[in-house]
Structures are given as structure tokens and as C-alpha cells.
Write a structure and sequence with these properties.
By secondary structure, the chain is an alpha/beta fold. The chain has four helices and five strands.
């Protein structure tokens, strides 16, 4: 069974939690809040895949960390991700907003 770990405490945290609740996904979601730098390696090592569905981003530190941890990555096909990911070589690029892809 898939489990989503959503770390952080950004300005959209309440809205994200409400969406998860309204869709019945809280039982499959872990929201640890802000994670200290010393805790991060344990989260990456416990993961099976890194997923980012961002519509826009600069160079993503979490993407770099996931790659350094050896995780397979699935990210949106946006310019900043194309700097680091070659589709089906070191990760998968999917069109932003295309849930089927």
C-alpha cells in the first residue's frame, strides 16, 4: 500500500491537510511537519520513490537530496527539473497537471 509523507509546514499546510481529509487520505498520509536536517537521511532511506508535482520551481534542494540518496524520482517536466533529470535515464519527467502520466 502506498503511503505519502508530506514534510514541511508551509503557508499551504492547513489547506493541504483539509484536502487530504476531504478525500479520505489521512490514513495513508504522514505529516511530520518540519524535519531537522539530521532527520532527513532517515526519511529518504525509508522512501521507495521521490515525487514532486510542482508547476514551477527553482533548483529543488529536496530533489538533489533524493538523487543523492539513490531514490528513483518522478517529477514534473519543468525547466528546473530538466536541468537535473533526463527522462527514463535518471528519473521520470511527467507533464505538469497530467495525473494519468
Amino acid at each position: 500500500m502506498a503511503k505519502l509523507v508530506l514534510a514541511g509546514d508551509g503557508s499551504e499546510a492547513t489547506a493541504v491537510k483539509e484536502r487530504l481529509l476531504s478525500r479520505g487520505l489521512m490514513s495513508r498520509t504522514q505529516l511530520p511537519g518540519r524535519i531537522s536536517q539530521s532527520e532527513l537521511p532517515d526519511y529518504y532511506l525509508a522512501a521507495d520513490v521521490y515525487l514532486s508535482c510542482s508547476y514551477c520551481d527553482g533548483s529543488s534542494v529536496s530533489l538533489m537530496e533524493a538523487l543523492a540518496a539513490g531514490l528513483p524520482v518522478v517529477v514534473t517536466d519543468i525547466p528546473s527539473n530538466r536541468e537535473w533529470i533526463e527522462h527514463e535515464v535518471n528519473g521520470c519527467l511527467c507533464p505538469a497537471g497530467d495525473t494519468h502520466a
